[in-house]
Amino acid sequence: MSRDIWDPSTYARYADERSRPFFDLLARVRAVDPDYVVDAGCGTGELTVELARRWPKASIDGFDSSPAMIAKARELGAMPRFFVTDVTLWRPDRPVDVLISNAVLQWVPSHRDLLEHWVDALSPGGWLAFQVPGNFDAPSHVAIRELCRSPQWADRLGDYDRGSPVDDPIGYLDQLSDLGCRVDAWETTYLHVLHGDNAVLQWISGTALRPIFDRLDEDERKRFTAELAVRLDEVYPSRKYGTPFPFRRIFLVAQK
């Protein structure tokens, strides 16, 4: 894309909910005293710091394609080294003992090829762990696609349809097993309870809507989000305690 579409403050609004899958993923990585640990697509770096807490003797790198995210990460003043690079171009200069990728690969159309490179980059006995959203058929994404194809937006957004950019757990299990890994694959549907007006809209504004916002000017974004908010409030009605928001995620942990 032509500019950095990621807004750290918007993305961080639901930091607790977004960090939970990271810790669930990390819990299945049983590496002992790794020498080199990498967080691929580290965002604002807070979770990379958790890797340093778990493995304090390791050299830890975190990288992201977003300069805004990495600038925020560097403000932490923490041990990991943070740098900007594209996930498809990164190649380590030494074997990696633990490679973590949290909610990144859904943005990489060629990520199935990338997984092969990542397995090659692991040290013998090294660990690859990643999770991706599996909610692309959820009502939130259906509402986005329907609005993009509606008469008022079809000329600008009618061609926007990411489909399902990720595989199912068995697909990843097959691929990583064929690459010689011992694989743990599973999926979880989290039931987040969101608060505030237009709660689901606020959630997806930091993720799913970013590529759409990149194609619209400020006035168009306001009109699009106003129309989308009505649709989302219909399919995700609020309760007295908040707005329940189911979110499916797919997890893979592979040891080389």
CATH topology grouping: Rossmann fold
**The CATH fourth-level homologous superfamily:** Vaccinia Virus protein VP39
Query: Runs with pLDDT <50, length 5+?
Result: 1-6
Mean pLDDT: 93
CATH architecture: 3-Layer(aba) Sandwich
Residue share in helices? Answer: 25-40%
**In this structure, how is the largest beta sheet organized?**
7 strands, mixed
What percent strand? 15-25%
Word description of this protein:
The protein has 11 helices and 7 strands. It is α/β, with parallel strands linked by helices and 256 residues long. It has one domain: Vaccinia Virus protein VP39 (Rossmann fold, 3-Layer(aba) Sandwich). The protein starts with 7 loop residues before the first helix and ends with a strand. The longest helix is centred in the C-terminal third of the chain and has 18 residues. β1, α3 and β2 form a beta-alpha-beta unit.
Short précis:
With 256 residues, the chain is of the alpha/beta class.
List the helices and strands and how they pair.
Blueprint: H1 8-11, H2 15-26, E1 36-40, H3 46-54, E2 59-64, H4 67-74, E3 81-84, E4 96-102, H5 111-121, E5 122-133, H6 139-149, H7 154-157, H8 169-178, E6 182-194, H9 199-205, H10 210-213, H11 218-235, E7 243-255
Parallel strand pairs: 1-2, 1-4, 2-3, 4-5
Antiparallel strand pairs: 5-7, 6-7
